[in-house]
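Check the record.
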Amino acid sequence: MFYGAKTEPATAGSPRPCSGSWPGIFYIQMKSDLSRKLIKPFDLLSFSGMCQICHSNPADNESGFVCRPCKRNTQPIRSPWCEICGLPEENSHARYKTCIDCNTTEYNFSKARSLFMAKGLPQEVIHRFKYNQHEFYEPLFKEWLAHSLELDLNQHPKAIIPIPLHRVKKRERGFNQVETIARILSSHTNIRIEENLLRRVKMTDSQTHLSRSKRISNVKNAFICTREILKGCYLLVDDVMTTGSTANACAKVLLDNGASSIEVLTITRGIPG
């Protein structure tokens, strides 16, 4: 939702704006915790009422500049799924209540659930939101996170805890996208958020192309808890989960500092390699 785009009058020698009536840089004010940020120039299609994903259909602005056909092609994860990691049955090769990986892996969290598989629209939106800070996708996150109430997670955790970025990476990126997702969830559920309870003290490599064993070693001793916490169930939030290594490392730290149990919610779920 746009509340206005402001341009400065051109002066002699000043660079010309982008072609058309749109300026090269937009100040976008939104109803979000990321309001009043300076946004980089976008493709003209971004501001012509077209879908940000397919660029073919008119965007449904109430859902974050994504068209209705793209939204309809996005199917949430449904049960049956692995009772521990939440991987859908068709992707987990499960014959029983837990998948093959969970039968051989010990997790510190009691269960993990994801809203979508990491493909198509959800994967694309997560990537753009994460690396380009496109706040206009936030209404779509609000719509998606409303479905979290349909999952078999504890509906009354003590707090929502976003998985933190290392301070260097957060400074480079400008924000932690997971904190934004956690705030949206907190606002929707009225569950308090603990943004500073976990701290990432180890600068880790990207998990994207690492094997399971390397993912585990990559995040070993990467997190600390800043204080002791009350007993109870806590909800860890992240944008994507694949092997669960990051969530598992965070869950261990929280359990060691007083939590009784940890559950995990992510927007997308990758398939372990």
Notes: The longest helix spans residues 120-132. The chain has a mean pLDDT of 79.
